[in-house]
Amino acid sequence: MRDYVKRVSQMLPKLSEEQIKQILQSVTSENEMLDSILDSLSTGLMVVNTDWCLLKVNNLAERYLKEPFVNDEIKNTSKNQEPVYNLLNENEICSFLKDCAKEDKTNVSEEFSTTNSSGSIRFVQVSVFSWIYDGQMKGRIIKFYDITEKRTQEVLLRRMENMAGLTNLAAGMAHEIKNPLGAIGIHIQLIQRAVKKQREGEGLLPEKKFLEDHLDIVNEEIENLNKLVMNFLFAVRPVKANLELKCPNPVIQNIVQFFAPEFEKSGVSFSFTECDKIEKFPRLLIDEKLFREVLINIVQNSFAAIKEKMDENESFSDGMIEIKALVRDDLYTLKISDNGSGMSEDTLSHIFEPYFTTKASGTGLGMTMVYKIVKEFGGDISVSSTKNIGTDFTITIPVPQTDKKLLGKGNCL
Question: Helices marked H in 237-323 — which ranges?
Fold first, then answer.
């Protein structure tokens, strides 16, 4: 097309009015076809000049603008004098593009979570590329790519992997139910025999005290069964994670600020160490509420372990819970350490199993839910512990591909 236009421009003085009209119609038709191709793409595109002012936008990219544009009218509007990042309706995307313009960045990408008109969360990848024409930089091409389906498939795959563990969970549940059912059966049989014996003799019911004792045990076991079933449903219920791209640091800071005063009254220090060598902390694909639940569960267990050690050892009074963050390569790592009573190797090997607990009133499901939530985030969790020394929980969560490119190198653990 470019060579064709050059040849026509050279021949222009020799062409008739009719020939020029035909050429213009041909060029117009060609441009309309190119516009229709752009609008048919499954990727949103914006073209901006070197001042980041909008020159062209297709239909999919237009939804990110505060006001609709018509390509043919862009050059005739004062809005063309505005940088494109001032025209977008998503603040985080605006900041990203403004940063790219300020730092003269190109060939970079970043992911964002947005909310559409129906309230659904969508994930979009925004990329910035150089626009080169005749060997010169003419501006930037901005690509908007909806990756919601990709993220949804990743979540579904993790859930399917989690479902594979339900077989062992169901087997454990069946074992737990057998004991109270056996106790209920025995006590009902005792009542039945006593009633039958009395009726065959004097025709009277057994003494009230006799019936009450057995029925109390039956009711107690029924209540235990109900708790088992409710806990089982809680354990197998899929984690309803509302995943968004969020920075985890504010959540951790809020938890430390909330618990620190209470812990300090008991002689336990509680701190969070951020990695100051990182230029920018990444945003992770997490649910803030569930992420908070994970941290609170672990921190409360650490506090209980320290209190236990204090009760057993009067000379021990300097409890410590510390959270440290590390970003390396494509992983965000969080380490929660304490100097509490620690765990034996046997306890350590069962810590994430359903119904396993060392507490008299515990359900044995807290750490199971922690494990499920971290897996829902696509992450992993491990624990190391030494009896009477302390425990370290390590959580790793993947950094989205586009976020890790913006990070510096750091090591704080």
Answer: 249-265, 288-312
Q: Please choose, from the candidates 12, 8, 4, the residue with its C-alpha nearest in 3D space to the C-alpha of residue 30.
A: 4
Token match 């653990």: residue? 413
Q: Is 353 helix (H, G, I), strand (E, B) or coil?
A: coil
- How far is the C-alpha of 83 from the C-alpha of 63, rounded, in Å? 17
Neighbours of 407 (CB within 10 A): 20
The widest CA-to-CA distance across the chain, in whole angstroms, is 130
Say which residues have a Cβ less than 8 Å from residue 45's Cβ, sequence separation at least 6: 38, 56, 57, 58, 60, 61, 141, 142, 143, 144
End-to-end CA separation in angstroms for the chain: 58
What pLDDT, in 10s, does the model give residues 298-342? Answer: 999 999 999 999 988 888 888 999 999 988 778 899 999 999 999
Alpha carbon of residue 242 to chain centroid = 7
- Measured in residues, the chain has a length of 413
Q: At a CB cut-off of 8 Å and minimum separation 6, what does 67 contact?
A: 79, 87
Residue 330: Cβ within 10 Å count: 14
Measured over the CA atoms of residue 69, residue 75, residue 79 and residue 80, the dihedral's sign is positive
H/E element holding 127? strand 121-133
Please state whether the predicted TM-score (pTM) of the whole model is above 0.70.
no
pLDDT in tens, 122-171: 888 899 999 988 888 899 999 998 888 887 777 667 666 655 555 556 66
Q: Residue 317 corresponds to which amino acid?
A: S
**What does the block give as tokens for 205?**
């019911």
352 contacts: CB under 8 Å, gap ≥ 6: 367, 368, 370, 371, 381
Instruction: Show the tokens assigned to 91.
Output: 């603040």
CA 326 remoteness from chain centre: 17
The DSSP symbol for 81 reads G
Tokens of 402: 């586009």
Residue 179 — very low, low, confident or very high, per pLDDT cuts 50/70/90? confident
How do beta strands 268-273 and 319-328 pair? Answer: parallel
Question: Which H or E run includes 36?
Answer: helix 17-40
Tell me the pLDDT tens digit for each residue of 219-248. 777 777 776 676 666 666 666 778 888 889
